[in-house]
Amino acid sequence: MPTTPPNLIKTDTLGLIAGDAKIPVHGSEIPAYWAMPADKSHPPIILVVQEIFGVHEHIKDVCRRFAKAGYLAVAPELYVRQGDASTYADVPTLIEHVVSKVTDAQVMADLDASVAWAVKKGGDATKVSITGFCWGGRITWMYAAHNIALKAGVAWYGGLVRPVTPLTPTHPIDVAATLSVPVLGLYGADDTGIPVETVEKMQAALKAAGSRSQIHLYPDTPHAFHADYRPSYRQTQADDGWKRCLAWLAAHCAR
């Protein structure tokens, strides 16, 4: 993970149960971080999917923010089998040696196991949602297509149109026509890695399918605008996105 300033937002654990965990998956375990309200029975579950940098302090803080909002939030380390993201000093090397080797099938199975784990911890099995950032934004769309029992998803600047590979055989644009879980996409118009044309293509595909999913595009906004530990952070857009995220989840989890 690149050297960056500490994140600006620090969410405490007052009134929460929070910490590290091990999630059983097919006879092995993967590490995770989780947080939930200490005084709430059967809270709704939110899966928090990491950026390419893994489950670092920012992602843990996001889990605590969701817990403060009443959720059981869990962030599993989704490519720990391929390597430790924190040991890589630059993004291209991290992608080459770790991220590019992660299969969608592995991730879907790990997220399924994370849901089962969260239910055993007391989460409400009937109110499960997902959110993710960057790499996790794409995964949010893909898991919403995989697990139709989800109530909702919120995808923060995840790739939509990408080349097909044996490890990633489909992408969000490929599932737009059949997506039944409502997903809110939050994107920046100045994201150099996710061209506006691809966002518009996804919007058109969702509209043609009569989908309940929506995309909000922030003008003059870069990639990773929610990441308060990075220079790309934009407080106004991040705050607005967080409000939209919570409102979207609340509206769909109430059903």
Descriptive account of the structure:
Helices cover 33% and strands 22% of the residues. The protein is α/β, with parallel strands linked by helices and 255 residues long.
Structural class of the secondary elements?
alpha/beta
Q: What low-confidence regions span 5 or more consecutive residues with pLDDT below 50?
A: none
> How are helices and strands ordered from N to C?
EEEHEHHEHEHEHEH
Shape: globular
> How many individual β-strands?
8
Query: Measured on Cα atoms, how large is the radius of gyration?
Result: 17 Å
- Count every helix, treating DSSP H or I runs of 4 or more residues as helices: 7
Beta-strand fraction estimate:
15-25%
Sheet having the most strands: 8 strands, mixed
Strand order of the largest sheet: 1-2-4-3-5-6-7-8
End-to-end Cα distance, whole Å, is 39 Å
Average pLDDT? 95
Q: What share of residues is helical?
A: 25-40%
Provide the descriptors you would attach to this structure in a database record.
single chain, 8-stranded mixed beta sheet, alpha/beta, 255 residues, 7 helices
